[in-house]
Amino acid sequence: MVKKRLPINNAETRMPEAPSAAPSAAPPKRSLVQKRSFAETISVPTKGTVLCNRYELLEEIGRGAMGVVFKALDKSLDSNVAIKVLPPELASSKKAIANLKQEAKLAMRLRHPSIMGLHNFENSDGCQFLVMELLQGETLEEYLLREEKAPLPVSLDLARYLGEALDYAHF
To answer: In the β-sheet with 79-85, what is the strand arrangement from edge to edge?
Structure first.
């Protein structure tokens, strides 16, 4: 639950934009996270699906071992949220669901600027999913892929944000 889009582009730490060069062959896309092969084959609802007659899935914004994350419209409140749809192999396990519900109960109590807010745990026709705060902006992974080396002030800010979040969540 600490996948917070950190304020790394504030006025104090903003890096100057690199001069744009002439178009050339794009380098192969790098990733800091090795994708797990089964994560690419998770069977999940698709764009346009409405869950619980309330959440309309607008676009996929992330994918990992624990599921797929969508930007979604909460039609009841007319606001955007993030929906994390759990993979079928977890959604069918009573133990995994019980563990996830317990984790969700604990995570819903956390209110901190560097911790993503969790709104609810839902079940729609056997599809288990989390409703979370939608964070806009660049992810830490995207930033680290873009920058060859993070300047010291940025690195210190990131360490402070992460440390404060971990301290808050675990004490």
So the answer is: 50-51, 55-64, 67-74, 79-85, 127-132, 118-124
